[in-house]
Amino acid sequence: MSLSVIKAFRSSIFKKIWVALSGMFLCIFLLGHLAGNSMMIINPEMFNRYAHTLISNPFIYFAEAVIVFFFFLHIFWAIKTNVENWRARPISYHKRATKWDLQSLASATMPYTGALLLVFIVKHIIDFKYGPYYTISYEGVQMRNLYQLLLEYFGNIHNVIAYVIAMTLLSIHVLHGVWSAFQSIGINRSTLNTTFRRFSYLFSVIIVISYITFPVWCYIQGVK
Amino acid sequence: MSSNTMTLYLQVWRQKNSNEAGAFSNYEVANVSPDMSFLEMLDMLNEDLARQGLDPIQYDHDCREGICGACGVVINGEPHGPGKQTTTCELHMRNFKNGDAIVIEPWRVKAFAVLKDLAVDRSAYDKIIQAGGFIKVNYGNAPEANSLPVGKDVADLAMDMAACIGCGACAAACKNASAMLFAAAKISHLALLPQGQVERKKRAANMIKAMDELGFGNCTNQGLCEDACPKGININAIARLNREYLDSILTCNF
Ligand code: HEM
Ligand code: FES
Question: How close B246 gets to chain A, by Cα (Å)?
Fold first, then answer.
């Protein structure tokens, strides 16, 4: 029995469950990241102090490990399912009827939006976490001045545009992703389907609008 | 012939057998009546080919009334062609216009090998059923109808699931060539009814195991399958299958 259960964890359905659970975790992470980022608009000192509290706490290594783990889980199973899916149709159709509504497009492009997001995330970490280290001290406590880095980074319009594009891709990814995760873990049903679809739209719109605000706001700060 | 007959330009997949590579051939079919079914139009072309001593186009069919599921071909990129909830045999030529070009292809699914031209081997679906899509325990004779412990809404839903004719359009339409809608319909149908309870826990686990081994793709919830299904089976069934499977794997005692 136990062996077949382990095998079942690699079945077509569980592969999607792993992608769904990790995807849901990443969505919750997005909300947390959003809350933290919004401090930059409220007050630079508050933002820097918040960032300092995070980086100076040894617990951060554990938190980072958890996030990396879920990313790895998500990407690993997402790639594996998609490779198998391409193999399941060795000869493709000569002619294919296409659906052009947003939901279908979002769904059909999941591997591509996902791959581009991966590129973005790597760049994002290099640019910020491992980016230039400015310091500032508040009441004698020296800490990293991430706020200054933000203003400098998003003072460059190219970075703003790249960021806006990445967030648009992210919103397309989660537009299908959120609903799809409810379907994959099996809690969707006819009576909840519309609710989950709407929730997915709402989440996607909130993410894109709020995350785009940051670079645009930083850019405007620099112009002033 | 009446004046409203059509001339159509077909591009049909021709393949000698599963081992040889196929290719498209072009045919012009004149005098097509809008009242013909799609298969009757192909029959007319085949008679013509036979008269010329050429090899007729092989395609599957049986009931010609939308209940056996044999007749699936992909017409202009859509399994069973244009029109909601129709099989190829139920598709009328009035859906096309004079001078239309029509591309006709077999199901393109690795687990369904092309046998010849448009006919594919759908026994992969039978193998999924053989892995557990049945009831073995004896329930005796048909009980008194009103004594069956099943509500009307559940009975209706089970009936909707039982409408699946196993035609393969779901896997053919799916961008991943996945058989999930088929498996979902079959597993739902039995899981919803009292007679299906005894083997319920093993059923989902065993049928999904068989499905995966046959080389179908994984579901990515795009929903092309439900649009192609001639019986209108909805992908809510797939969410039900996912919970049946979870239950099967996490709580099964054997
Ligand atoms: C913050 C970043 C991300 C979030 C919030 C996110 C979220 C999600 C969610 C909720 C799903 C739906 C799960 C399901 O249908 O079962 C999903 C699916 C998927 N994700 Fe992501 N994801 C992110 C990053 C990535 C990255 C970096 C990649 C790629 C390398 C990726 C590739 C995929 C793929 C291929 C799918 C499967 C979609 C399908 O084929 O149906 N995602 N994602
Ligand atoms: S021939 Fe039976 S369903 Fe079309």
Answer: 8
